[in-house]
Amino acid sequence: xxxxxxxxxxxxxxxxxxxxxxxxxxxxxxxxxxxxxxxxxxxxxxxxxxxxxxxxxxxxxxxxxxxxxxxxxxxxxxxxxxxxxxxxxxxxxxxxxxxxxxxxxxxxxxxxxxxxxxxxxxxxxxxxxxxxxxxxxxxxxxxxxxxxxxxxxxxxxxxxxxxxxxxxxxxxxxxxxxxxxxxxxxxxxxxxxxxxxxxxxxxxxxxxxxxxxxxxxxxxxxxxxxxxxxxxxxxxxxxxxxxx
Amino acid sequence: xxxxxxxxxxxxxxxxxxxxxxxxxxxxxxxxxxxxxxxxxxxxxxxxxxxxxxxxxxxxxxxxxxxxxxxxxxxxxxxxxxxxxxxxxxxxxxxxxxxxxxxxxxxxxxxxxxxxxxxxxxxxxxxxxxxxxxxxxxxxxxxxxxxxxxxxxxxxxxxxxxxxxxxxxxxxxxxxxxxxxxxxxxxxxxxxxxxxxxxxxxxxxxxxxxxxxxxxxxxxxxxxxxxxxxxxxxxxxxxxxxxxxxxxxxxxxxxxxxxxxxxxxxxxxxxxxxxxxxxxxxxxxxxxxxxxxxxxxxxxxxxxxxxxxxxxxxxxxxxxxxxxxxxxxxxxxxxxxxxxxxxxxxxxxxxxxxxxxxxxxxxxxxxxxxxxxxxxxxxxxxxxxxxxxxxxxxxxxxxxxxxxxxxxxxxxxxxxxxxxxxxxxxxxxxxxxxxxxxxxxxxxxxxxxxxxxxxxxxxxxxxxxxxxxxxxxxxxxxxxxxx
Lengths: 244, 483
Description:
The complex is a heterodimer of chains A (244) and B (483).
Chain A: H1 3-24, E1 49-51, E2 67-71, E3 74-75, H2 86-94, E4 111-114, E5 117-126, H3 133-139, E6 147-157, E7 161-171, E8 174-178, E9 181-186, E10 197-198, E11 202-204, E12 207-217, E13 223-229, E14 240-241
Antiparallel strand pairs in A: 1-5, 2-5, 2-6, 3-6, 4-5, 6-12, 6-14, 7-10, 7-11, 7-13, 8-9, 8-12
Chain B: H1 10-18, E1 38-40, E2 43-47, E3 53-56, E4 62-66, E5 73-80, E6 83-89, E7 102-108, E8 124-128, E9 141-144, E10 151-155, E11 161-167, E12 181-185, E13 188-195, E14 198-205, E15 217-223, E16 244-247, E17 253-265, E18 268-278, E19 284-295, E20 298-301, E21 308-314, E22 320-323, H2 353-356, E23 365-370, E24 380-384, E25 390-391, E26 394-395, E27 397-401, E28 407-410, E29 416-419, E30 430-434, E31 440-444, E32 455-460, E33 463-467, E34 478-481
Antiparallel strand pairs in B: 1-2, 2-3, 3-4, 5-6, 6-7, 7-8, 9-10, 10-11, 11-12, 13-14, 14-15, 15-16, 17-18, 18-19, 19-20, 21-24, 21-34, 22-23, 23-29, 24-27, 25-26, 28-29, 30-31, 32-33
């Protein structure tokens, strides 16, 4: 059982177990366990992210891209991730949540409006190979479950590279585009596994290439990791990551 | 080939050995004591007892037509440089009652009888038995030692010892002064192989030449030295009768014997043999070709692929090849904790194709790799392609979603999809080779717009594609699981 399913099952199981328990022991009132996160007044993303700087950044030793513009989570309630079929995800990601959703190259601190909610883009460097979206949302006191994240980054290549593949892992479903073209879709109640879903052969242009991704999750710890693999399956590392 | 135990007249035996119409592994693959299969100028050849042999254009359909003069029995062949050396027993291992055998060798630049270069050199005597000693000089097997280039020949039958002699790889003659070494007893049709620091002596035990009642089986021992001792897995010397089973009878094929090894590339090996009787073909002796597996340093015959409906499992992670379609939930959600366990149980019907196919697109559908859930979009029916095309040891297969004609196909751009209808196009035909570790390689008959030899690979845990075969990567390997 994965964590998200665990969450659902635990909640279900708790109710199922709590019911008979209450009936059997009417003198012991049922009390909801306190959510300790509500007492966490020191929330921060610092443990997981640092602000993106102007210093040159390249993929890490394994080729993972760690510099991203992340949009604060869009509320998209889902009590379970079992709904994340291909059709559901395509519809969810094709929905226009904010203006210029598929073309925007935002600046750090730029805001977009989703419905009545104003959300902010954050230019960040991940301390980990995987970008921990749950910690991003939690640290900013934003919703962590039932959410949809958007991520954008720019990688510059000193030369055209043919036959590369974008290799993605995400928790849960996600969709990724390279230079405006769909590259890979990760459907289902998915765990984040490096090189889980891999695109068909793509070309990285000489100069700038824009990577855009959307990650959706119900309950659970959202995150993703992205890298490019060359035609021999080796990570592409000769890239500059600029976020702009 | 063992004579003297089976009370069969020479005429009767010859009728078995010679009266067959030599044709093919499919069709009429009739041969006895086939030599190691040789590839020559794009065709495959094997020689048998009595002269002649089989030719195949693709390794699957075999026809008579190979030419080997000298008659006699049980030849072997090896390619050395740009020439082929053929060794054979000029006698019949007791045919007519005697054991005064002779082993001869001869060269040819080509095995194609139609080639202007086709001409055997004069046969050279390299070993003989006098009919009295504990040896009958028939059934030669050749090994060119990859370590030092020395050429070895084992020979003999149940009449005494299996012996080892050294030949000159330049001339095919016996090395001057070389003395034969006894390396085994109680077997025949021996063959020598080398792999990873071990020399292997393969021999055939059991009863030859008794059709469906032949108990022929192929066994092996191994040694660190070509001269032996060859011990089996129990440590028994083949000089004391030892031998570990490589291949016995199976299905409707009886009495395998006369091992030969073909290395196609790293991780892809085949073994040839004959079956004493194919019950589906009048009990005739037929050419057999199996995948050759190596398990714990021992050769084992793999199973030729069996048609059926399978999960196609990626060895990379263990996920299953499936259509890119929406997952359709089925009945049988979790019952919940704390329920009465005395409630009656009842079966839940499996999800069937009819439950889901209306949710699938009707055109091309992509493929991916996912958690196996025994669902219709993950079940593949694999049958031999109707055009009888093939490769060494097997036919091309069509791979379709069970209950449909939706076929797996290679695309231009070296990716993989499914098309709604199988048409027999070469990109919809698949070669399936069991690898030396027991897993499988799946290769399209053609990648449109490409001359590259590519196979089905896992480029991600959940993503298939076509790529170069690499025996050292689980990306290139698949299993067929029959649930």
